[in-house]
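Hi V.,

Quick status before I head out on leave. The structure for the redesign project is tokenized and pasted below; the design run finished overnight.
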């Protein structure tokens, strides 16, 4: 009740006046798509992620630009010798955007909310090892684990802390987010813009430096490019290679780049024919020429890749270790014959509405059609694509998904039986066992051995044909300073930016 009253007390006139006094410092961002929602425990799409992650919301931990786990809302933590009890000391003086204090009860409620079956968070698998969360005192949280979880600290960076009153609320945060981050939500005009304003009560006193962030929804790439060139927009985040090439060398425009953690893939529904047959899934991989995809769809700005990004040098296997990554249409046709399916195999391929993904899907369609398939492309708007994806309503889909610093954060929720984003309906006892072993091990070498086996099996017969990892570009006005591109596509470092 108190938090609702505080939110209601913020008058529109006050906010407009505050914005007018600092309008020159609001960073104008050109985004290709608008978010489908703003609830940090429910969102799955990049347009939502880039608005809320690290800007509106924060976790107990955070991931820095080198992909290392660092303190977030927890200033420190201790781990019991058996690896099954984590005790977090929270920062003092942290407030939610509605003016209320953030304390241990909010952390506990946030963890329970993600674990709740009623909320059905796609992040739930990241907390599968957590047995209980308890508020020891207002500034101390204790997590009890069923078994050790090597990836827990990294995973907690993705679990946003929300007000405890939201624990059972499925709807409120989708349109009116309330976090602790450097920027707070002000306005959302669907298909127009989302406006965030500076959080003057942010716990890190010198930040943010900008008065706000305005995400302008501009689907046309050419319009965004013109807007950047003429100063209408100061930042085009996470652009594709084609756009980067067109902007290279433009006056007052600078490009920043890094290796992307995000992966492109062709997903397959293994709960129904023909992809319930592992030989058909293997045939898909042999039919695909990944270097051709890099050259044709990514303009050479990327590399063929397996289940893990080459940016994760201590984890990812070289693609040359996967036999099925050597293109062989004849081998693909032979596998389809062994599978006993009628050729050509007619399937639909649903496509995420991004230009790079559309380009990739067209190349893949051509490749598969030469190897015994008959692929129909289905281009959908973003909301429908995500709904069908969540409901496993597809034969195949083409998409780009966010990678994570620790393999557990991707593999466990995606490929373990019953995982919270296992939309493929995939189930394999050996994979389950390996993922459980890797999650509970603290020894890096032992985890590496397990994940090597997981990659080897998933690469050729898993439910996802991983394709490429692109070079991640952001284009910005040369006056924008202090902003770094992160491999996980987060815009959290905008808190350090000035313009």
């Amino acid at each position: 009740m108190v938090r609702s009253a505080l939110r209601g007390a913020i008058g529109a006139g006050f906010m407009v006046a505050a914005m007018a006094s600092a309008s020159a410092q609001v960073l104008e961002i050109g985004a290709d798509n608008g978010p489908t929602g703003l609830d940090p425990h429910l969102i799955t799409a990049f347009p939502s992620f880039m608005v809320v992650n690290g800007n509106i919301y924060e976790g107990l931990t955070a991931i820095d630009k080198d992909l290392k786990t660092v303190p977030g809302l927890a200033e420190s933590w201790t781990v019991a010798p058996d690896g099954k009890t984590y005790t977090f000391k929270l920062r003092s003086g942290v407030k939610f955007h509605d003016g209320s204090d953030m304390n241990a009860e909010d952390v506990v409620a946030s963890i329970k909310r993600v674990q709740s079956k009623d909320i059905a968070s796609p992040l739930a698998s990241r907390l599968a090892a957590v047995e209980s969360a308890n508020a020891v005192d207002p500034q101390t949280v204790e997590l009890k684990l069923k078994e050790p979880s090597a990836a827990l600290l990294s995973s907690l960076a993705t679990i946003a802390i929300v007000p405890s009153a939201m624990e059972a609320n499925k709807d409120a945060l989708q349109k009116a987010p309330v976090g602790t981050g450097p920027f707070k939500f002000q306005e959302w005009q669907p298909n127009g813009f989302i406006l965030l304003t500076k959080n003057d009560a942010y716990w890190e006193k010198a930040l943010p430096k900008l008065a706000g962030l305005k995400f302008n929804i501009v689907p046309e790439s050419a319009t965004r490019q013109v807007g950047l060139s003429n100063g209408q927009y100061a930042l085009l985040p996470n652009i594709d290679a084609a756009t980067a090439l067109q902007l290279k060398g433009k006056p007052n425009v600078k490009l920043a780049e890094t290796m992307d953690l995000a992966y492109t893939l062709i997903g397959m529904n293994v709960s129904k024919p023909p992809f319930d047959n592992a030989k058909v899934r293997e045939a898909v991989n042999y039919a695909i020429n990944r270097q051709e995809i890099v050259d044709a769809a990514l303009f050479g700005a990327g590399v063929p890749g397996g289940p893990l990004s080459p940016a994760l040098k201590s984890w990812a296997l070289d693609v040359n270790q996967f036999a099925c990554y050597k293109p062989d249409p004849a081998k693909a046709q032979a596998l389809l014959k062994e599978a006993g399916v009628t050729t050509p195999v007619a399937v639909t391929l649903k496509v995420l509405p991004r230009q790079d993904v559309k380009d990739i899907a067209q190349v893949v369609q051509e490749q598969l059609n030469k190897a015994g398939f008959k692929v129909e492309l289905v281009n959908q708007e973003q909301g429908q694509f995500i709904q069908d994806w969540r409901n496993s309503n597809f034969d195949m889909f083409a998409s780009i998904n966010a990678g994570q610093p620790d393999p557990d954060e991707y593999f466990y929720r995606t490929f373990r039986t019953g995982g919270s984003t296992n939309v493929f309906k995939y189930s394999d006892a050996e994979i389950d066992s390996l993922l459980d072993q890797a999650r509970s091990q603290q020894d890096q070498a032992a985890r590496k051995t397990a994940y090597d086996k997981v990659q080897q099996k998933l690469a050729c017969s898993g439910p996802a044909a991983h394709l490429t990892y692109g070079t991640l570009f952001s284009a910005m006005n040369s006056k924008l300073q202090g902003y770094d591109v992160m491999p996980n596509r987060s815009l959290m470092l905008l808190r350090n930016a000035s313009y």
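Above is the designed sequence. The CA atoms of residues 249 and 255 lie 9 Å apart.

G. will cover questions while I'm gone.

Best,
W.
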